[in-house]
Amino acid sequence: MTNKSLYVQANYEVNRTPQFKVLSNDQCEEAYLGALEILERTGVEIDSAEALRLFQDNGGWVDGNRVRFPSAVIERLVKNVPCRLVISNRTGKRTLFLEAQNIYLGPGSGQSFVLDPLTGERRAFQNSDDEKTALVCDALSNIDFAAGQGVYAFADLVKNTVKPIIVQVSTVEQCTDIMDIAVAVAGSKEAVERNPFFMLRVESTAPLKGAGGAIDAAIFAGKNQIPVIYSTQAFSGDTAPGTMAGSLVLVLADCLVGLAAHQLTKPGAPIVMGGLISALDKGTNTRSYGSPEHGLLSSAFVDVCRYLHIPSFVMGGCTDAKAIDAQGSVEAVFSLLSGGLSGANLIQGCNIVESGNTASLDLLVMNNEIIGMVKRVLKGIPATDETMAVDVIDEVGPGGHFLGAEHTLTNFRGETWWPSLLNRNRYDDWVAGGKKTLSKRVNEKTQNILHTHQPEPLPEDRLAGINKILAALKSRA
C-alpha cells in the first residue's frame, strides 16, 4: 500500500473546509478604525446614569448625556474581552463552545404574532407558545438552543427543554428575576457562574443611542458574570447609511459602546457582539430579513468580530415570506449558508417569518433540515489516503462497482447527508404516499413533536422553586 502522507511536501496548503470571507483583514481594520473615529468624534447619547458615571470615571468625555471616547479607551476594553465562552445545558453539561468558527443555531424571540402549526392561521403570540417552542427545540437535533423574551418565557423554556437558552431582556428587573430562576434550577449562584445554561440578550435599536435598559442590563450581566449578547439593529437606508460599509461601521460603533460599559463593570466578563444588519426595501418600506444584503452584512460583521477576537452573533434562517413557501425556503437557505460559512458563533432567528413580525415552528422544523445540509457543506472534502481511496479504486478496477466494498460500508454514512423531510423517492412512490409537499411534511413533523415529545423533566424541588419565584413576581404586578 502506498502511503502518500509519509512524503514531505513544501508549501502544501490544506483546506479541510470551504473557505469564505467577505472582508480581508485590512478591510476589518478599516471598519474598526472607522468605528473608533465615530465614537471619538461623534459619540453617543447615553440614557443610563450608571453608564455615564462609568464612562466619566474611566476616560470618556461626557457632555450632558453625550459621551465621546478616546480611541485608547475602546482599544483597551476590546483587549479585555475573552475570545471564547462556554454555555452549558440545564444539567450542567458544557454544550456551546463559542470560539473560533464554531456555529450554533436556534430560534429568535419577541415576535408579536405566530403562524399556528395546528390551524395554519396567523394569530397573536400567546404565553403557551414559549412552551411549544421549547418542546420543538428540544426535539430537533440541529437546533442548539431555545430562545424567548422575558421572565415568564424563560421559566417556560427551562421547564420544557434541557438545551441552553437565550433570553431577551430590556430591564434590570427582568435580569434579576431570571437570575433568581437560574439559581433555583442550578442550586446556587456559584453553579450558575461556573456553568451558565443561559445567555442574556439585550438590544439597542436606535443608532448611537445607548438605551438605558440595554446598557443597564449589560452592566448587570458584567456584575454577575452572566454571558450577554449585546446586539443592535440597523437597516441600510433607514437607521443606517445607504451603503453597506457605512451600516457595518455604525453597527460596530453601537456594539462597542455596550461592550465598553460591560467591560468597565467587570474586565474579562463574557460578551458576544452582533445583531440584525440588513437593508430597507424602498419599494415596500419593509425592513428586510431575507435580502442578500442581510447575509452579506452579517458575514462581514462576523469577519470584523473574528479580527477583534470577540465571539459573534447574527440573525439567520429567517425570511420575509408570509408562509412556509418557496420564498421562505430560498431566503432561509441563503442566510443559513452565508452565516454558517462565515463562522458566526450564534445564529438566531430560525423561526422568523414576515420580516420579523411572526414566529413559525414549521419554519424552525424546516430549518432543522436545512441546517443539516449546511453542516455537511461546512465539513468540506478532507483529502487523505483513506478518503481518496486510490487502493480501493485499484482493487475494484475498470468497470467495477463499489457498493459491496468494505471501504464503502465503512465510510458512506459519514460522508453522505441523509434527509428526513426532503423527498428523494421515485415519482410513483411519492404519488402513492399522497403527493405530500415539503410544507405538508414539515407541518406533520411539527404536530407530531407537539403531541408526542417528552422533554427531560425538572426535579420537583427545582420546579417548586421556579413556581415560587413566579408567584412572587405576579404578586408585585
The protein's oligomeric status is single chain
Provide a count of the helices.
Answer: 18
Ends: how far apart? 75 Å
- Whole-angstrom Rg: 24 Å
- Helical fraction equals 40-55%
Note the main sheet. 9 strands, mixed
Question: What best-fitting shape do the alpha-carbon axes yield?
Answer: globular
CATH-defined topology of the domain at 78-379: TIM Barrel
Low-confidence stretches: none
**Tally of strands:** 19
Strand content: 15-25%
CATH architecture of the domain at 78-379: Alpha-Beta Barrel
Which structural class fits the helix and strand makeup? alpha/beta
What do we call the CATH homologous superfamily of the domain at 78-379?
Trimethylamine methyltransferase-like
How would you characterize this protein structure?
This protein is an alpha/beta fold and 477 residues long. Among the domains are: 78-379, TIM Barrel (Alpha-Beta Barrel); 385-415, no CATH class. It is built from 18 helices and 19 strands. The chain has helices at 25-42, 49-57, 71-80, 128-139, 151-160, 172-186, 189-194, 212-223, 244-265, 292-308, 326-342, 361-379, 385-388, 390-396, 406-415, 427-432, 438-452, 460-476; strands at residues 44-46, 61-63, 66-68, 85-88, 94-98, 104-106, 113-115, 122-124, 146-149, 165-168, 198-204, 209-210, 228-236, 271-281, 286-287, 312-315, 346-348, 352-353, 358-360. The strands form four sheets. Strands 6, 9, 10, 11, 13, 14, 15, 16 and 17 form a nine-stranded mixed beta sheet that branches. Helix 9 links the parallel strand 13 and strand 14. Helix 5 packs parallel to helix 6 (172-186), helix 6 runs antiparallel to helix 18 (460-476) and helix 8 (212-223) crosses helix 9. The chain is globular, with a radius of gyration of 24 Å.
